[in-house]
Amino acid sequence: MVLYKSKRKEMKLNKMFLEERLKFIESKLNKDYRVNVSDLADDLKVSEVTIRKDLKELEEKNIAKRTHGGAIKIQKNIKELAVDNKKTINIDLKKSIALKASKFLEDDIVIFLDSGTTTYMLVDYIKKYKNIEVITYDLGIAYSLSDFENIKTYLLGGYVDIKTRTLSSIDGLENLSRLHADICFMGTDAYDEKFVYSTSEKKGRIKRKMIENSNLSIMMTDTSKFGKTGFYSFNKCDEFDYFITEDFKSNI
C-alpha cells in the first residue's frame, strides 16, 4: 500500500524546513558576515537553487545582500566611536597591519596620514626615517610626531572634533587640494565588497582628496570592519594600490 502526504502537510513541512534554513543562514551571517552558496548547500543538504531562493528571501527581508556566489550581511550605518574607546579595540591586529604598511616607508618622502587608531600605529615606524614630511588632520598623530626633528608635520586647519580629536573645515580641504604626497596611508570606519566608508561627509571628503593627490594609496584596516557600512563612501576598494589587513596584503 502506498501512502500519500496531503498537500497541506507537505507545505507545512517545507515551510518548517525553510524557516530552519533561514535561521541557520542568518546565524552564519551574524558570525562570519558572509556566506557561500555551495558551502550552505553542503551544510544543509539541499540544492544550490534552493539556497539561492533562501538568500533572495533574506534579501527581501533586508537581512542579507546577495553577491556573486553568496551573500553578505546587511548592517545599519556604524556610528563614530570616541578615539579613547577605539584605542582599546583589536590592538594586536592594528600593530600587525602597521608593520606591513611600514615596508613602504623610506627617507625623503611626503606622506598623507589619515586619522585613526590604525594609522596612528605607523608613528613609531615613521620616526625612524630621515626628512619625512607628514600631512595629517589628526591631533594625536601630529602631537606624537612633533618631538622629532627629522619629521616635518603639517596639520590641516579647521574646527576640532572633540570625539575623534581631528580637524576639519572648508579651508582645510582647500589647502589639501593644493598639496601632493608620495604615499597616502588611509584608514576606514567600515567596508564591504565594493566601497570603504566614513561616518561623516567632512572626513570622507578629506580622505578622498588625500587619495586623489598621492602617487600611491594604501588602505589599512582590520577585517572586523568588513560587511559594515557608513554614512559616506569615499572610495572603491579596488581603487587602492594596496589594501592591507591582518590577513593579507594585495594590490586589488
What does it look like?
This protein has 252 residues and is α/β, with parallel strands linked by helices. It folds into 2 domains: 18-73, Arc Repressor Mutant, subunit A (Orthogonal Bundle); 83-244, Rossmann fold. Helix content is 37%, strand content 24%. The protein contains 9 helices and 15 strands. The protein has a 7-stranded mixed sheet with strand order 6-5-4-9-12-14-15, sandwiched between helices. It has a 3-stranded antiparallel sheet with strand order 1-3-2. Helix 2 crosses helix 3 (48-60). The longest helix has 26 residues, at 7-32. It starts with 6 loop residues before the first helix and ends with a strand. The model is unreliable at 1-7 and 9-13 (pLDDT under 50).
Q: What's the SSE blueprint?
A:
Layout: H1 7-32, E1 34-36, H2 37-44, H3 48-60, E2 64-67, E3 70-73, H4 83-86, H5 91-101, E4 110-113, H6 123-126, E5 132-136, H7 139-145, E6 151-155, E7 159-161, E8 166-168, H8 170-177, E9 181-186, E10 190-191, E11 195-198, H9 201-212, E12 214-220, E13 232-236, E14 242-244, E15 249-250
Parallel strand pairs: 4-5, 4-9, 5-6, 9-12, 12-14
Antiparallel strand pairs: 1-3, 2-3, 7-8, 10-11, 11-13, 14-15
Helix pairs in contact: 2-3
